[in-house]
Design goal:
Elements: E1 2-5, H1 6-22, H2 26-38, H3 42-61, E2 71-79, E3 82-85, H4 90-102, E4 114-115, E5 122-123, E6 131-137, E7 142-149, H5 151-154, E8 158-162, H6 168-175, E9 187-195, H7 197-207, H8 214-220, H9 225-238, E10 253-263, E11 268-275, E12 281-286, E13 313-316, H10 322-325, E14 333-342, H11 345-356, E15 369-371, H12 396-406, E16 410-413, H13 419-427, E17 431-434, H14 440-444, E18 447-454, E19 463-477, H15 484-496
Parallel strand pairs: 1-3, 2-6, 9-10, 13-14, 14-15, 15-16, 16-17
Antiparallel strand pairs: 2-7, 4-5, 7-12, 8-11, 9-11, 14-19, 17-19, 18-19
Length: about 500
């Protein structure tokens, strides 16, 4: 009988979480590099280049791939002949591993988990508790999958209880465009089919833990219905033309994974969960011989790319005017220098409440830009840790009031804006700029100074003042309301020509 020691299990969890915070799976990097080589859309190619350069920087510097270091999900297959020499429950041990990993002094990870989710939403400060799934199986080992799932991609999870005669392919092709770009494509889609509602969702999440092997599947051909679905969905989802970061292009997904389970005759439950550009998971086995140390990948697995945005228009945020903003063109690359403020969900909610009460905000937003970000704390000599954008649509409901009452000139975030926000941008002759999700460490290199200037109690959601130099962004919505997240995918879906374009 194998004995698993408490410390071996805890430290293995902690080490794996540190590992996946800065090392992409090699299969993801190789497939993303191949997508970069075949991409024909300049905007999408630029976005993929930033993700690849960011990934290599993180592998070299041992800093997080994305500022959203995720909520921890652990899948355990525990052999029935295993004996535990442990303190507390499996949940307790996993949480202790999470705590060690996220508070590691050399690579502190962002704490994103909030307790009392329908109430006070108080940050637990150490990213606990994890979501733990345990299965008992024959054997005398413990197989472990550790994942860190970003909130942007998790927010786009979908579920439907279809009729048995309905087409799963049709549902996926109808649903994927509604997900927008907040899940940071190119990534993976996990599809769970069958069982019950909760089983389908679990199957979809488990599917994302499998290696990317679509190229091998294409070469050998499908051997069952699940593999047939993978091939059909891979081709047709990419034919939607959504592309990297939703900018329009050839690659939206690097793979589609399908897992199924028997279901009731009256039901066809289907779940779909995307994995983002910060795909993070590791697999290891404990056999009682001690903690597991994962071998680092070779840097030779990364393409030798550098990111040069020198052709972009340089913009001085300290002197920019409304006249300058109306000259920005959709899809144009800008290099931002000067001071900007940060603020995301909690900060916007509090600002709007203050505006409603007629109170002065802690910062003057007139003529300024606000960056939707919740950064990672700095370590060593860093000014700021990884600081990539968060999904902008969550701020849409605040946009009209903030623009109208503060004189804010522009916003920076990730992915598309919704109709209400676009209307507000057009009305106030403002602008929305997009930074690349999945390039957080690369963005942090542009931050030359940082200080908290408001709502310090909100932690990573506080308002910071950043001083940036040549921060790369793309004009996503110009002052006339034209959105590249609408025009780009429509153009590339038409170019690919496999799916009819539906005009709005």
């Amino acid at each position: 009988m194998t004995t698993i020691e408490h410390e071996d299990f805890v430290q293995s969890i902690a080490d794996a979480l540190q590992y996946i915070s800065y090392y992409h799976p090699v299969d993801y990097i190789k497939n993303l590099a191949a997508a970069y080589e075949r991409e024909q859309s300049p905007a999408a190619k630029d976005a993929i280049a930033q993700i690849l350069v960011n990934s290599r920087l993180c592998a070299e510097g041992h800093r997080p791939i994305c500022q959203d270091t995720g909520i921890v999900t652990v899948f355990l297959e525990v052999g029935m002949d295993v004996r535990w020499h442990a303190k507390g429950s499996i949940q307790d041990m996993v949480d202790e591993g999470v705590r060690r990993a996220y508070l590691h002094p050399d690579n502190k990870l962002r704490a994103s988990v909030l307790a009392d989710p329908a109430g006070k939403r108080t940050n637990t400060r150490d990213n606990t508790p994890a979501v733990v799934n345990v299965t008992l199986v024959p054997g005398n080992t413990v197989d472990v999958i550790v994942a860190a799932k970003g909130g942007g991609s998790e927010a786009k999870s979908k579920f439907a209880m279809l009729n048995p005669s309905d087409s799963i392919v049709d549902w996926v092709l109808k649903t994927v465009p509604t997900m927008g770009a907040g899940w940071c494509p190119p990534g993976l889609l996990g599809i769970g089919i069958g069982g019950t509602a909760e089983k389908a969702m679990l199957l979809a999440k488990e599917a994302l833990m499998e290696p990317i092997d679509i190229t091998e599947l294409i070469a050998r051909g499908a051997s069952n219905r699940a593999e047939e679905l993978r091939l059909e969905l891979y081709e047709k989802v990419n034919a939607l033309g959504i592309g990297a970061q939703g900018l329009g292009g050839l690659t939206t997904v690097l793979d589609v994974k399908v897992k199924d389970y028997p279901t009731h005759a009256a039901n066809l439950p289907v779940a779909m969960i995307p994995n983002c550009a910060a795909t993070r998971h590791a697999h290891f086995t404990l056999d009682g011989s001690g903690p597991v140390a994962l071998d680092p990948p070779s840097l030779a697995d990364w393409p030798t790319l550098t990111y040069d945005a020198s052709t972009g228009r340089r913009v001085n945020l300290d002197t920019i005017t409304a006249t300058d903003v109306v000259r920005f063109k959709p899809g144009e690359v800008l290099l931002l220098s000067g001071k900007l403020f940060t603020g995301r969900d909690a900060a916007h909610k509090r600002m709007v409440e203050m505006l409603d009460r007629g109170e002065a905000l802690p910062v003057d937003l007139r003529g300024k830009f606000i960056y939707y970000v919740g950064p990672v704390d700095p370590v060593r000599d860093e000014v700021m840790g990884p600081a990539g954008p968060t999904t902008a649509t969550r701020m849409d409901k605040f946009t009209e009031q903030v623009l109208a009452q503060t004189g804010l000139l522009g916003m920076i975030g990730k992915a598309e804006r919704g109709p209400a926000a676009i209307a507000a941008i057009k009305k106030h002759r403002s602008v929305y700029l997009m930074a690349v999700g999945g390039a957080a460490y690369l963005v942090s290199k542009a931050i030359k100074a940082a200080r908290v200037v408001g709502f310090a109690d909100l932690g990573m959601e506080a308002i910071y003042e950043f001083t940036v130099q040549d921060m790369p962004v793309t004009v996503a919505v110009d002052s006339t309301g034209e959105s590249v997240h609408q025009t780009g995918p429509r153009e590339w879906q038409s170019r690919i020509g496999k799916i009819p374009v539906v005009l709005e």
